[in-house]
Amino acid sequence: MNQRTPLIAGNWKMYKTVGQATDAARRLVAAGGGVTHTEVMIAPAFTALSAVSAVLADSDIYMGAQNMFWASEGAFTGEISASMLTDVGCRHVIIGHSERRHLFGESDDLIARKVKAALDADLIPVLCVGETESERETKKTFSILDKQVESGLKDLIPEAGREPVIAYEPVWAIGTGKTAQPEQVGEVHSFLRDLIARRFGEALAGAIRILYGGSVKPENISALMSLTDVDGALVGGASLDPEIFTRIINF
Ligand code: PGA
Predict the structure, then answer these.
(1) Sign, Cα dihedral of 76, 78, 82, 85
(2) Could you give phi then psi for residue 219, rounded to 5 degrees?
(3) By CB neighbour count within 10 A (0-12 exposed, 13-18 middle, 19+ buried), where does 109 fall?
(4) Is any ligand 1 atom within 6 A of the Cβ of residue 170?
(5) In this model, does residue 173 exceed pLDDT 80?
(6) Burial of 216 (0-12, 13-18, 19+ CB in 10 A)
(7) Rounded to whole angstroms, how far apart are CA atoms 24 and 68?
(8) What residue owns the CA closest to ligand 1's atom 6?
(9) To the nearest 5 percent, what fractions of the chain are helix, strand and coil?
(10) CA distances from 175 to 3, 122, 226 (A)
């Protein structure tokens, strides 16, 4: 049994107006009070962060953002800085989600700068990594993950209590209803933990939380959470409905 507290995170993507987001957050607070076996985080759209933060203020539910830019301020039209996120109550920030990588062309280098800027601002980055279907079919899964983690964490100086979170999200399992099989998830998570141990030492490898993401549902969360190296989940579609997300939280 490891000492890592699990983290169940909900990525709301580009869904929910401010009213819809605060309503969902209120329902989660009402249903989720007193959960101690896991940490919970929700990541609403930027426009809803302030309002959702007020709803979560007296709860144990953390708030994260879905993206940020690495510069602290400046002429970067349309971007949001780490300090703007902490200012509205974010504790986490999702970085390098596959939709950012594939739809918006984010490179490993850009992602590494964001991870560093998040850590410098005391935000916990949730670094997303994952292979595409064709990369898996051509047996490139491990080399791709190696590259994404090596690059994403290249500026990391391990420090106790300030570990980033890694989310393994096979691209072919996101929003497709195709969850990776427990054996596939277990294999990748232990590969990632070994990689962290080799690169940054056993202490960080033992402390870092590695989440699984990709079609997580109430029906598959328990099997995933029973795997030794799975420390939680990053949930997209199934986090939008507070009742369904609560069932996942209570795995
Ligand atoms: P999904 O999304 O749960 O809808 O597959 C996961 C994610 O994109 O983080």
Answers:
(1) positive
(2) -75, -25
(3) exposed
(4) no
(5) yes
(6) buried
(7) 23
(8) 236
(9) 45, 15, 40
(10) 31, 30, 22
Query: Would you list the domain boundaries of the chain?
Result: 7-249
- pTM here is 0.97
Partners of 65 in the β-ladder: 93
The single-letter code of the amino acid at 126 is V
Instruction: Kindly report the average pLDDT of the chain as a whole number.
Output: 96
98 CA to centre of ligand 1 in angstroms: 10
Closest of 169, 156, 168, 148 to residue 204, by C-alpha: 156
Do 212 and 167 contact (CB within 8 A), yes or no? Answer: yes
> What DSSP assignment string belongs to 113-126?
HHHHHHHHTT-EEE
Please return the burial class of 126, using the count of CB atoms within 10 Å of its CB with bins 0-12, 13-18 and 19+. buried
Distances (CA, A) of 78 to 69, 155, 216, 239: 10, 25, 31, 26
Q: What's the CATH number for 7-249?
A: 3.20.20.70
- pLDDT > 80? residue 174: yes
Active site residues: 97, 169
- Ligand 1 centre from 203 Cα, in Å? 29
How many residues are recorded in the chain? 251
Q: Burial, 25: exposed, middle or buried (Cβ in 10 Å; 0-12, 13-18, 19+)?
A: buried
